[in-house]
């Protein structure tokens, strides 16, 4: 019986780590692919100086990474609540660091680098909060073992 529990715990930890790595890779893909599309759009529009604004570049990069991660989570069967929670975690580092940047307390490099560094513990925090969701196999999301997001009725 102890061997079975240890085996399940190992799979659970493996699933958790795999979820984390997959989301990091999806963020990187979103940053690269959507970033390239954004740069092409900026060049075609003739507004090449747009990327000279660090805060705007940081916001675009955050959006690109969030979209990449959200698309991957949807593909893997996560519900809207979990995607929204993780998307919120992606935006928190920008929200925290943008004000010190605007105040001149940190450099553009610190803003962009700090965002990347802070996104990882922010994501990990959401994953630990929903450990049961992120510790199960992806098939559980797709086959309905993942509870649907609650819905609200606005009247």
Sequence-ordered SSE layout with sheet pairings:
Layout: H1 2-45, H2 54-75, H3 80-102, H4 108-129, H5 131-134, H6 138-142
Characterization of this structure:
The chain has six helices and no strands. The termini are far apart. It has 155 residues and is mainly α.
Q: Report the order of strands and helices.
A: HHHHHH
Number of domains: 1
Q: What summary fits the major beta sheet?
A: none
Computed Rg = 18 Å
* Poorly predicted segments: 1-6, 143-153
Shape: globular
The tally of helices reads: 6
Mean pLDDT, all residues: 84
Straight-line N-to-C gap: 52 Å
Helical fraction = over 70%
Portion in beta strands: under 5%
Structural class: mainly alpha
- Tell me the number of strands: 0
Entry keywords:
155 residues, mainly alpha, 6 helices, globular, disordered N terminus, disordered C terminus
Concise account of the structure shown:
The protein has 155 residues and is mostly helical.
């Amino acid at each position: 019986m102890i061997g079975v529990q240890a085996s399940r715990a190992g799979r659970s930890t493996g699933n958790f780590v795999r979820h984390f790595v997959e989301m990091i890779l999806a963020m990187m893909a979103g940053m690269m692919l959507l970033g390239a599309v954004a740069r092409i759009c900026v060049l075609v529009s003739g507004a090449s100086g747009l990327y000279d604004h660090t805060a705007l570049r940081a916001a675009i990069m955050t959006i690109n990474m969030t979209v990449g991660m959200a698309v991957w989570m949807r593909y893997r069967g996560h519900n809207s609540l979990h995607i929204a929670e993780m998307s919120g975690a992606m935006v928190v580092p920008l929200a925290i660091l943008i004000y010190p940047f605007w105040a001149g307390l940190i450099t553009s490099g610190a803003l962009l680098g700090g965002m990347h560094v802070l996104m990882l513990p922010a994501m990990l925090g959401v994953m630990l909060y929903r450990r049961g969701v992120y510790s199960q196999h992806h098939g559980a999301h797709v086959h309905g073992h993942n509870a649907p997001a609650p819905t609200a009725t606005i009247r």
